[in-house]
Here is the input.
Amino acid sequence: MTDFRAIHPTNRAALISDSYALAEAGIQPWRLPLVISQYLVGEDENTPMSVAVERLFDLVRSTPDDTNAMILRDFLSSLVTSAYGTIGIEEDTGNEHQENLFQARDVFHFHWSKIKCG
Here is the structure.
């Protein structure tokens, strides 16, 4: 599938979450969630992006401080930077969609500060 938007955002979030859970349980290799996560640089919906950032942040935190951790941290940093620039940078307008994006901005800002602090 080349157009990830053909899958509803809630289902994209579930696929991301499930792929990380399967890897954590040892049922699937870690390559699966990481390959799935590559599409996220184009994601503009709050739900899948928030799930992905949370799961990737957990993975970075649990990875020993070595080359793999640095690669994951760099990927998460670029993802959060991209998402922060795309999702929720405008002021709250009272619109429900804008409010969700505004909340996503706060989630990304929190993770961004954690990444920068190491």
In short: Residues 96-117 form the longest helix (22 residues).
